Amino acid sequence: MTAAARRTRVLLADDHALVRAGLRRILDAQPGLQVVGEVEDGAAALAALRREEVDVLVLDLTMPGKDGFAVLAEAKRLREGLKILVLTMHADPEYVARAVREGADGYLLKDSAVNDLVAGIESVREGRAYFTPRIQQELTEILRAKPAPPSPLELLTEREREVLTCIAEGLSTKEIAARFDISIRTVETHRANLMRKLDLHSVARLVQFAIREGLVKPP
């Protein structure tokens, strides 16, 4: 098979099996596309990028453990030439702007996936940005708006975001330490730093913040 005829290799990253199955049905019907893997969280996405040859990563932003933003920050360092199409339910301008800043080549809402997924993949694969009309409107509003202060989430390190996500998921200090192979004291230090940086001085408030920022889904 010549380079020109080679199929575009796609990795799907979404924590909902039904969503992945629906996306796969759409892509399997396209002779020019090949799904090389499906993963349900950010850590698995990064592991798959190390293991598989991937041209386009279709990435949800809200996943357990490492979220989509953490994956965006690392993915292109792992796979040169990788294109990333964000596929999410979040249409907020802050989400769009942050995703683009951290490396997204396209931004597609899940309610547009049936009609626009293939076009989105083909566009980013060819080096063209792709945004559905609703997101294009969001970008226009961002450009017209006055510069916004940094999001509190941007004050956090990657590990602090990971610890915050685990706290919001209800993991104990001991469980968080085991997940990241760090000491209990280190987890406690991260929690203290989170409270200081975010000016949120209880676990309940940290959980509310994580839900509001889309790090975890509401219970």
From TrEMBL:
SMART domains: HTH_LUXR, REC. Residues 149-214 form the HTH luxR-type domain. The modification 4-aspartylphosphate is found at residue 60. Gene3D superfamilies: 3.40.50.2300. One of its GO terms (molecular function) is DNA binding. Residues 9-125 form the Response regulatory domain. PANTHER family: NITRATE_NITRITE RESPONSE REGULATOR PROTEIN NARP, TWO-COMPONENT RESPONSE REGULATOR. This is Response regulator transcription factor. It comes from Eiseniibacteriota bacterium. The lineage of its organism: Bacteria, Candidatus Eiseniibacteriota.
